[in-house]
Amino acid sequence: MSYIFYLIVYGFLLTAALGLLASWVDRKLTARVQYRVGPPLLQPLIDIIKLSGKETLIPKDSQKMLFLSAPVIGFAGCVLASTLLWMNNINTQNTFIGDIIVLIYLLVIPSLSIMLGGFSSGNLYAGIGASREMKLILSYELPFILSVLAVVIHSHFSIKLGGILNFQSQNGFVIGSYSGALAFLAMLMCVQAKLGLVPFDVAEAETEIISGPLIEYSGAALAIYRLTKNMLLFLLPFFMVILFLGGMRFDGINILYSALKYTGILALIVVIRNTNPRVRIDQAMRFFWGPVTILAVIAVILAIKGL
Q1: Crossing angle of helices 64-90/219-244, nearest 10°?
Q2: Could you report the per-residue pLDDT of 57-112, keeping only the tens digit for each?
Q3: 202-255: per-residue pLDDT in tens?
Q4: What is the mean pLDDT of residues 131-141?
Q5: Distances, alpha carbon 278 to alpha carbons 42, 117, 180, 204, in Å
Q6: Distance (Å, whole) CA 232 – CA 81
Q7: 66: burial class by Cβ within 10 Å (0-12, 13-18, 19+)?
Q8: Smallest Cα–Cα separation from 19: which of 49, 45, 51, 57?
Q9: pTM of the model
Q10: Please, is 82 exposed, middle or buried when counting C-beta atoms within 10 Å of its C-beta (0-12, 13-18, 19+)?
Q11: Which residues of 94-117 are buried (b: 16+ CB within 10 A; e: fewer)?
């Protein structure tokens, strides 16, 4: 299959569809926890379509080009990362040396786009939210990278996604080791922050700074941001499935098994979201630079020792 096919069908269409479905599951479960009925199945898609049809307003004091291009930059990073993951998951021969490093860079682009959009809007609340997003990125990226490093070391220093998948097919899942289990827990916390979900939703914090970096966005620009976030709700757990659970297979009973892998991680994300209060930005930074980083460092040490 050509790279363009992977990009359009897997990187965008399939990931968007699964991301919208994951968003519905998240909202439905959250509603049930709060004794509400929750939205219908197609509500996330309807929300995106409705936003796309509305006018995009541009703030007078904004840096217009950066303001409008920021959501597109984040969306492009998400689609490219998704394409890279699908290519390796479908065929481990579609890998190249260092693709996992490229993926780490691509996965930070959506967060950077939110930060750029907030700073370029000229709004005070957006600037505060963008500042918080920047601090969050500086906080969780270190343990996130260390968690990936633990997997790389455990997989005989393979810096190829295909190599990590092949290692697990021959030696069992990485999460079955001590280092893999600890790295999984550390990365789960980082993914929660990357998704901007409670307790790490301090950047948008609707009750405090009225959506923060996104306060000035409307119409198609806001729809792109929302779609990107929905896609990340599938993409980041998918990345964890590849790193720790041997990826997804779509033959026979493995379809159900793969769905359970992803659903299990999504369930953990939803549970964390609904059982914790929002933390302050200083608390989030101390948490990631403290316990989460220490956990990731221990995982790396254990991986070096072969545990």
Answers
A1: 30
A2: 899 888 899 999 999 999 999 999 999 999 999 988 888 899 999 999 999 999 99
A3: 998 877 777 889 999 999 999 999 999 999 999 999 999 999 999 998 888 889
A4: 95
A5: 28, 23, 28, 11
A6: 10
A7: middle
A8: 45
A9: 0.95
A10: buried
A11: bbeeebbeebeebbbbbbbbbbbb
Query: How far is 119 from 122, CA to CA, in rounded Å?
Result: 6
Tokens of 146: 């260390």
Tokens describing residue 58? 């541009």
SS3 letters for the chain?
CCHHHHHHHHHHHHHHHHHHHHHHHHHHHHHHHCCCCCCCCCHHHHHHHHHHCCCCCCCCCCCHHHHHHHHHHHHHHHHHHHHHHHHHHHCCCCCCCCHHHHHHHHHHHHHHHHHHHHHHCCCHHHHHHHHHHHHHHHHHHHHHHHHHHHHHHHCCCCCCHHHHHHHHHHHCCHHHCHHHHHHHHHHHHHHHHHCCCCCCCCCCCHHHHCCHHHCCCCHHHHHHHHHHHHHHHHHHHHHHHHHHCCCCCCCCCHHHHHHHHHHHHHHHHHHHHHCCCCCCHHHHHHHHHHHHHHHHHHHHHHHHCCC
C-alpha 279/C-alpha 201 separation (Å) is 8
CA separation, residue 107 to residues 164, 171, 239, 298 (Å): 18, 27, 10, 24
With b meaning 16 or more CB within 10 Å and e meaning fewer, what string describes 23-54? bbbbbbbeeeeeeeebeeeeebbebbeebbee
Closest by CA position to 211, among listed 118, 277, 112, 75: 118
Structural domain boundaries in the chain: 3-304
